[in-house]
Design a protein that fits this description.
alpha/beta; Rossmann fold; 371 residues
Length: 371
C-alpha cells in the first residue's frame, strides 16, 4: 500500500533521509508502521541541515515530491501563489494518483490545496488530521474555515475520515473525535513535587510568540516575587518574543529566577514538567495543545485560556485552571494554592489520571483502525 502525506510542514534532507519538526514526525512515524511505500508532498529546504528539534522519518521507502513554500498574506504573496498554483496542484495531483491512502494535514495552505484536489479522487481511501481548533465559532482565518467546510461536506469529500480534537455538536458522519499522544505506558512513573510553601516552579513550553503570551508568564513571576513568594520560571522554546523577554528579565531583576532553555528535546521538557507545579499556557488559538496534555501527565497543573478543546481536557476546571489571561487573576489563583496544598494535589492527580489514558499504544491502536 502506498501512503501519501500532504503537508505544509517544512522538511530538510540529509544523506537521503528526510527530517521535520520532531513532535510532528514522532506522530507520523506511528502512521508509517502500516504502508509499504510512503510519498510526501511538502516544502523541502535542501540548503538547511536538520536542526536540534528535527527528527528523521522512520520508513525504508520514502519518495519526496517537493513543493515551494507559499502563503496568501499580502498582495505580493497572493500573486506569487497564483503563479505557483499550476506547479502546486500538479505535484499534489501526482502524489494522489500514486496513492492508495491519501492523508492530509490540516489546517494549512498546503492542506487547503489538498482538500480541493482530493475532491477529484472520490474512490480513494482518505484521512485528514485537522490539528487546529474545530470550534466553528472561534476566530479563524477564512482559509481554515474553507478547509473546515470542505472536510465536513460529505458530498465533496468522499471516503474520508477527518480526525478533529474534541467532541463538537453538528459533526457530520465522517468527522471523528481524536487525540494526540506523547508518552508510552512505560512513562507512567511516580511524580514527586516540592511543597508549594517551599517554592513554586512555573513552566512555559512552546514558541515564544505573541500568540502564546510568554510575557504574561514573566509578569506573573514578577507579581509573585513582589509578594515575597519564592517562585521560578523555566521557558522551553524560542521565538520572536525572546529578546523582549530577555530585556524584561533584566528590567525586573529576575535573572536568578528565570531559566531560558531555548529549543530542547522531549527528555528535557519531561524533566522540566516533572519539577514544575504550574504550566502557564495563555494561548489565543490551539488544536490539541500537547504542552497541556504533557504537563498533565507529570502532574503539572495547566493554567490556560479556554481555547479549542482545552475546557474538555481540563474538565472545566477539575484538572487545571481556566483563566482569561489577566496577570492579577493568575497570580491570585496560584497564591491561593500555597495555603491549600490538598486542592493542588487533588487536581494534579486528576490531571495525571486523565492524561495517562492517552498513551502512544492507544494512539497506535486507533491509527491502525484507519487503514
Amino acid at each position: 500500500m502506498t501512503f501519501l502525506i500532504v503537508t505544509h510542514v517544512l522538511h530538510t534532507e540529509s544523506g537521503e533521509k528526510y527530517f521535520a519538526y520532531a513532535p510532528y514526525v514522532r506522530e507520523i512515524n506511528l502512521w508509517l508502521i502500516y504502508p509499504d511505500k510512503v510519498v510526501i508532498v511538502a516544502p523541502l529546504d535542501r540548503a538547511e541541515a536538520p536542526g536540534a528539534i528535527d527528527l528523521e522519518y522512520d520508513h525504508p521507502d520514502i519518495e519526496f515530491i517537493p513543493i515551494p513554500e507559499f502563503d496568501i498574506q499580502g498582495t505580493k504573496s497572493i500573486l506569487r501563489t497564483v503563479f505557483l498554483l499550476p506547479v502546486l496542484i500538479s505535484r499534489i495531483n501526482r502524489g494522489m494518483k500514486r496513492a492508495d491512502h491519501i492523508h492530509l494535514r490540516c489546517p494549512g495552505n498546503v492542506g487547503l490545496l489538498g482538500c480541493i484536489v482530493q475532491i477529484f479522487f472520490p474512490g480513494k481511501k482518505k484521512t485528514a488530521k485537522y490539528a487546529g481548533n474545530w470550534h466553528w465559532n472561534s476566530q479563524q482565518p477564512w482559509s481554515y474555515r474553507l478547509q473546515h467546510r470542505i472536510l465536513r461536506n460529505i458530498f465533496l469529500t468522499r471516503n474520508m475520515t477527518a480526525l478533529v480534537y474534541g467532541d463538537w455538536p453538528d459533526m457530520t458522519k465522517n468527522i471523528r473525535p481524536f487525540f494526540t499522544a506523547s508518552y508510552s505506558e512505560k512513562d507512567k512513573q511516580a511524580v514527586y513535587k516540592r511543597p508549594l510553601s517551599e517554592v513554586i516552579n512555573l513552566a512555559f513550553v512552546g514558541t515564544l510568540t505573541k500568540n502564546k503570551s510568554p510575557l504574561t508568564c514573566l509578569e506573573v513571576l514578577r507579581a509573585l516575587t513582589d509578594k515575597g513568594i519564592n517562585a521560578t520560571l523555566t521557558y522551553c522554546g524560542e521565538g520572536s518574543e525572546l529578546i523582549r523577554i530577555g530585556q524584561k528579565i533584566q528590567d525586573y531583576q529576575l535573572k536568578d529566577k528565570v531559566i531560558l532553555l531555548g529549543n530542547v528535546n522531549a527528555e528535557k521538557v519531561k524533566e522540566v514538567l516533572r519539577e514544575a507545579h504550574f504550566l502557564l499556557f495563555i494561548s489565543r488559538s490551539e488544536g490539541w495543545p500537547k504542552a497541556v496534555s504533557e504537563a498533565m501527565w507529570w502532574g503539572c497543573l495547566p493554567v490556560t485560556t479556554p481555547v479549542s478543546c482545552v475546557p474538555w481536557m481540563l474538565d472545566n476546571g477539575s484538572r487545571g485552571e481556566l483563566v482569561n489571561g489577566e496577570v492579577t487573576e493568575i497570580t491570585s489563583l496560584i497564591e491561593g494554592y500555597i495555603s491549600d496544598q490538598k486542592s493542588f494535589n487533588i487536581k494534579s492527580e486528576n490531571a495525571m489520571d486523565w492524561s495517562r489514558e492517552y498513551t502512544l499504544e492507544r494512539f497506535e491502536s486507533e491509527i491502525k483502525q484507519l487503514f
